[in-house]
Specification:
The chain is an alpha/beta fold. Helix content is 29%, strand content 23%. It folds into 2 domains: 159 residues, Luciferase, domain 3; 150 residues, Rossmann fold (3-Layer(aba) Sandwich), CATH 3.40.50. It has 10 helices and 16 strands.
Length: 375
Amino acid sequence: MTQEGNLDNNPDISLEDLIKLKQYSLTDDEKNKILLKIIKKQLVHAKNNNRHISNFFEKQNIDIGSITSIDDVPPLPIQMFKYFDLATCPKDQIVKILKSSGTTTNLPSKVPLNKNTTLNQVKALNSILSDYIGKKRRIFLVIDHEGINDPTLELSARTAGVRGLSIYSKKIHYLLKEENGKLILNLPVINELLDGYEDEEVYVFGFTYIIWSTFYEQIIKKNIRFKFKDVKIFHSGGWKKLVEQQVSKEFFSKEIAKIFGTDMKNVYDFYGMAEQNGIIFVDCEYANKHIPNFSQVIVRDIQTLKPCKINEPGIIEVMSILSDSYYSQAILTEDIGYLIGIDDCACGRKGRYFRFKSRVERAEIRGCGDTFREK
């Protein structure tokens, strides 16, 4: 097994083992065997602890014991988080409800989290980020306003993104502020960074559309450029609006890299969602998104839901073993993507790697709601 750590002789590899293991070190076959064993146990738990999930399994005549392939794990349509309570733990154990932005409809997804799931998600995200920025704490720059991280606010996907990526921070600076309902440059903070942070290692996070439409436009007008010892920039979401403005991913990375005085290879786009919090699929230097040890991605045909071949576009399904408070094991998203390859990316990371293409137009998987309703 190509890894750091000793899992070869352990027949019962745990989630904790997979988090501690060097990420992206397992081949696709190695990972699938491990995940399938864990997921089948988790499916039993989910079915026994949520009547909607039980209906979902029964109406599709799914026998958990007969599942022999990762491809056969039943994917839950992501829309179901908008309409059903999918908690698989007692209500008194739920410590927070994460809500998505609800961009496809006016209804946000509601994702119930208990302490164990939340802790797993934090550990998992920590292990992913360490592969890209190392384990040393850095100055964290947030391209958003400070209020987005107000602990009294409802936990939104935007808030979760900031809190999640703050795990490596030794100090946080917010590069924007809210004034009269609008986001503007936080010039006192920016001037402080310009004056005394040249020798600092920093990492940056913001939502793609906010970075481009607000931060970039204003920073360019003021001709501001940063200079740091080392900088890593992470961003996600909002690509649809940038595509409409004919802003390519390459142009975005090139321009943002100039602002922060770094190479565009240090600008990392990642794919993630509220329903699979704790997992982000980050670009490597070849613009391919990689899948960590405790997750898997299947691309399915939009009509048949059968797994697609390499380079064949389909609906992205995201699998995770991080949660015991809701059904995270296989979630069919509203996004289109395609696998690029398996175990052979030039960056050296093992496993499948893929690219995001677009949102599904009028995303609604056929009859998915009926499999959840009472008989």
